[in-house]
Design a protein that fits this description.
Elements lengths: L1 H4 L2 H25 L16 H17 L4 H18 L1 H23 L16 H19 L1
Helix pairs in contact: 2-3, 2-6, 3-4, 3-6, 4-5
Length: 147
Amino acid sequence: MITLLSNSILITVIFATVTAQVMKALIILITDRQLVLNRLIETGGMPSSHSAAVSALATSMGLVYGWSSPYFTISVVLAAVVIHDATGVRRAAGKHAEILNDITKEFANLFGKGFEAQTLKTLLGHTYPQAVAGTILGCGIALAVYH
């Protein structure tokens, strides 16, 4: 356990993820004047914690092991897959959930009793600006930790 806690790359990735999640709650607090603590553990929103985590990982690997190391290469490929998934597949799933929520509300209105609309989670993926912000955040945190 001590070895795990002394892993500076892991600590950097966790710090980037937590920072992004806290920033989400702070942005809502500033813009909407609401303290929404659920944002600390939810997916989606500005900035992308997924992008922050994988970019912090890739940047840390490059700084520690070298930009031509296989560790950096693997981390960049992982980052590309995760960011693509967050802005593509998961974002599309969130949009589908919005449409399905609207349809189930209409069914509830049509059928009344006996049909209970179940709301699906819609904040799943990220817009490109959210992913870019998370990427910049993750790279910046890794650079700050290692320089």
